[in-house]
Amino acid sequence: MSSASNARSAIVRTERGLTIAGTRITLYKVMSYVTAQYPPKFIQGLFDLTEEQINVALAYIEIHRAEVEAEYQQVLQETEALRQYYEEQKRERVARSAVKPPKPGTEAAWEKLRAVKAKRESKV
Questions:
Q1: Fewest CB within 10 angstroms: 9, 40, 57, 69, which?
Q2: How many separate helices (H) and strands (E) can be counted in the chain?
Q3: Cα 71 to Cα 18, 22, 31, 102, 114, distances in angstroms
């Protein structure tokens, strides 16, 4: 079996994209470390891959660099869009909860908290 066909059978396309066969590790995760110039042994240990799996993944990335790089850039864009969306959701949720009055019966606890905070800030 040639190394190119071995690479094809060891890298499969799943609903998550190009994946190392028998794992849930995408080539895009590996690409993050490849582009940051981490050594192959480090990447292998990080993802608990066999030597054959990391070698096949790196060979596939090298042989199909343009395709993998294009998909990797798309994954990065989608990830950033999701991060921004959830960050905005979190900001809105925090803003909504900040203006809510305390629950009935917790006023004394909130007042005690404010007093402790004021005391701590006055020491600084």
A1: 9
A2: 6, 2
A3: 9, 21, 10, 48, 51
DSSP bridge pairs for 17: 14
- Model pLDDT, residue 1: 44
- Distance, in Å, from the CA atom of 91 to the CA atom of 100, rounded to the nearest integer, reads 15
Distance between CA atoms of residues 61 and 106, nearest Å: 58
pTM score, whole prediction:
0.69
Max Cα–Cα distance, the chain, nearest Å: 75
CATH number of this structure's domain 3-123, picked from the four choices 1.10.10.10, 3.30.43.10, 1.10.3720.10, 3.30.470.20: 1.10.10.10
Structure tokens at 23: 């794992």
Cα–Cα dist 12/10, whole Å:
6
Q: How far is CA 23 from CA 13, 48, 51, 59, 91, in A?
A: 12, 10, 14, 17, 35
